[in-house]
Amino acid sequence: xxxxxxxxxxxxxxxxxxxxxxxxxxxxxxxxxxxxxxxxxxxxxxxxxxxxxxxxxxxxxxxxxxxxxxxxxxxxxxxxxxxxxxxxxxxxxxxxxxxxxxxxxxxxxxx
Length: 111
Hints:
There is one protein chain. With 111 residues, the protein is mainly α. The protein has one domain. The chain is 32% helix and 7% strand. It has 5 helices and 2 strands. It has a two-stranded antiparallel sheet. The protein is flat.
């Protein structure tokens, strides 16, 4: 990855615009990292494969996340292909993609 691209990733991450990183041609393009990873993993969820099951991989997960490791965003060794269910498990989300964390009240009064 060149320095210009890395600087874009860092700036977008700081600005809270991480969605822009996933629009890069180096990620999403025909020969992008996402498609390379899917081909490498034979479009199979790697977490399910470890359990002896087959599930089609529809998502590509960054092992070391973009927010903390932007320099690894376009590194093929930093991604793994997963089905939606396994991707949600890795991020501790429910099946709809929302957070599983229980919201606490800020104070005792709720009225």
